[in-house]
Amino acid sequence: MADAREINPLLKQVLELGPPLVFFLIYLRIRDETYEFAGTEYSGFIVATLIFVPIMLIAMGVLWALTRQLSRMQIFTAFMVIFFGALTAWFNDERFFKMKTSIVYGMFALLLGIGLLRGQSWLAYVLADAVPMRHEGWMILTRRLCAMFATLAVANEVIWRTMSTDTWVKIETFGFPIALVAFIFLQFAALQEHMISEEDDESPQA
Questions:
Q1: Which of these, 70, 122, 131, 156, has the minimum number of CB atoms within 10 Å of its CB?
Q2: Could you tell me if residue 7 is left (phi over 0), alpha (psi between -120 and 50 degrees) or otherwise beta?
Q3: Residue 129 carries which DSSP code?
Q4: Contact present, 102 and 176 (Cβ < 8 Å)
Q5: Percent of the chain with pLDDT over 90
Q6: Residue 195 — φ and ψ, nearest 5°?
Q7: Degrees (nearest 5) of the Cα angle 97, 101, 105?
């Protein structure tokens, strides 16, 4: 396996966050349009979804070419986008793409929950090298993040079933990511006492 490579953090953010933003902009441009392909009419939302899938794959391909690595979360999310994007197009039903978000967040909650039942933090398995923290801290963070993912999954179900597509697209593109990033930031700030500092790593000499 090739060694991971460092790239400009701004470029990395553009490659990771750019595709959803492009989807949002395309949707705004064509949301009121109807397109006919092979005798079937498709809404602007579905066409925007079909454009989003290759854009996301291209961005991921560029990210892999530059860094030689993709996270398990990125790969899983890409698979879900492709799968539910295909269902959306095949059945000409935007509900499939909307429920994708619930399933992704629900799966993350389920996986973290399974680890917790085993007395493990699978979150630590993924992030421990980047964020040194004691086991107790990882368990607390994992429980809270598990609850957060479950909450987002339920919230998405309520939103897409009861609100307009415009509202869902805005919350999907901006609301959920901002809420998740803010939640994680606050948790790391609250768990500072569990962080392992360089001084903690130094063993006293006998």
A1: 70
A2: beta
A3: T
A4: no
A5: 64
A6: -70, 150
A7: 155
DSSP 5: -
Q: pLDDT of 16-42, one tens digit each?
A: 889 999 999 999 999 999 999 888 999
Between the alpha carbon of residue 148 and those of residues 114, 144, 156, the distances in Å are 15, 6, 12
Q: To which H or E segment does residue 173 belong?
A: none
From 106, 149, 130, 4, select the one nearest 63 (Cα to Cα). Answer: 4
Domain boundaries, the chain: 1-93, 99-196
CA-CA distance, 122 to 114, in Å (whole number)?
9
Closest-CA residue to 72 (of 147, 119, 122, 115): 122
Q: What is the pLDDT of residue 105?
A: 95
- Using CA atoms, how far apart are residues 122 and 145, in angstroms rounded to an integer? 11
| DSSP E strand boundaries for the chain | 34-37, 40-43
pLDDT at 117 over 60: yes
CA distance 154 to 47: 26
- CB distance 94 to 165 below 8 Å: yes
In the chain the first and final C-alpha atoms are separated, in Å, by: 41
Which conformational region is residue 92 in: left (phi greater than 0), alpha (psi within -120 to 50 degrees), or beta? left
pTM of the model as a whole: 0.84
Instruction: Please check whether residue 184 is in contact with residue 39, taking contact to mean a CB–CB distance below 8 angstroms.
Output: no
pLDDT of residue 60: 92
Neighbour-count burial of 138, counting CB atoms closer than 10 A to its CB (0-12 exposed, 13-18 middle, 19+ buried): buried
